[in-house]
């Protein structure tokens, strides 16, 4: 019997037992759909992270306080950076374009009977260009505000809506920790960055933040949470990082481990990319377990099929069918079940990826490699788990089989 004839017989047998064939495919369908969906969502997370880091601003470097060990193990980092460090970087590092130090503090803000407990950022005028924020209405903090410790505030779009609703906030006064501030500007919507909503922040002058909100506790100067820096161009990023590190080591008189860290946009994106890739593989591996379970289901149903079709196998052998013919037919049945289940699973997986993209900020994509891998694995599982039932059918004694007729 040739392969074409075996294929026809296998197909007709599966069609004749639709319910059993469908239930056999179910595990393969779920496994393939899970693999496609998990890989697609993982790649969408990677794309979203890359876009969010690009939105931080071009050629950005972040100088963060604390040693590497402290940043890994401590929640509250030591305040090892001061405003004088930022000023020194701005004046003494030739590859740096702009510097924007900032102090972060969570505080209760109120307007009449409305309250918000969100982040207040004390910063300088350069923050706007360094971090690629844009003003929607009004103005941002200026140098006069910094020199005079002016009580002015710029609100993020969602924070403004929370405090003022649909009313124009410009010119209104809000209270931050019982200190009155005049609203002078409203930011354009920026969106979230790794779960941190950039539109629910308030921006006030750095000096006002230090002197009237958090206070100064360092004997070395005005403490800052971190320092944002932009290099002159993309080619200057590595040189800027090297020069900043050397300058701060001299200023802090460091002879051992650095009490700060300089991270480029690319460094952070590499770390996040490694994490998201690892999570994608983990999710795909977990989803792949269902493929194995589906394969075991194929083997179980095929073994039952062999038992049920004992008479058919004996009759075919009695009229001249060889062991190889029986083996090929049962293997083809197992592969068809797995392949068709794989295709249905891929279609469901693509639908799940599309739905995820429509209902979430992720931008998942369907990888052709993942599709080919799923189809190949499905067919391979059918072939692998179909061997035992096929061999049992092929080795069945025709005399014993015919006795049951």
What does this structure look like?
The radius of gyration is 33 Å and the shape is elongated. It has helices at residues 3-16, 18-54, 68-73, 83-92, 127-130, 143-148, 157-164, 206-214, 237-252, 265-308, 310-318, 323-359, 368-394, 398-403; strands at residues 60-65, 96-111, 114-123, 135-138, 152-155, 173-176, 179-187, 192-193, 196-197, 201-205, 226-231, 260-264. 37% of the residues are buried. It contains 14 helices and 12 strands. Helix 2 runs antiparallel to helix 10, helix 2 packs antiparallel against helix 13 (368-394) and helix 12 runs antiparallel to helix 13. The protein is α+β, with helices and mostly antiparallel strands and 405 residues long. The longest helix has 44 residues, at 265-308. The strands form 2 sheets. Strands 2-3-10-5-7-6 form a 6-stranded mixed beta barrel. Strands 8-9 form a two-stranded antiparallel ribbon. The mean pLDDT is 80. It has 2 domains: 3-52 and 271-403, no CATH class; 79-258, no CATH class. 58% of the residues lie in helices and 18% in strands.
Compact overview of the structure:
The protein is α+β, with helices and mostly antiparallel strands and 405 residues long. 58% of the residues lie in helices and 18% in strands.
Shape: elongated
Strand order of the largest sheet: 2-3-10-5-7-6
Quaternary structure type? single chain
Structural class: alpha+beta
Largest sheet at a glance?
A: 6 strands, mixed, barrel
Spans of at least 5 consecutive residues with low confidence = none
Q: Calculate the mean pLDDT score and round it.
A: 80
Series of secondary-structure elements, N-terminal to C-terminal: HHEHHEEHEHEHEEEEEHEHEHHHHH
Number of helices: 14
Question: In angstroms, what separates the terminal alpha carbons?
Answer: 24 Å
Topology, number of strands: 12
Structural domains: how many: 2
Compute the CA-based radius of gyration.
33 Å
Helix content: 55-70%
Q: What fraction strand?
A: 15-25%
Keywords: Cell membrane, Membrane, Transmembrane, Transmembrane helix
Protein name: ABC transporter permease
GO molecular function: transmembrane transporter activity
Transmembrane segments: 21-42, 281-306, 326-350, 370-388
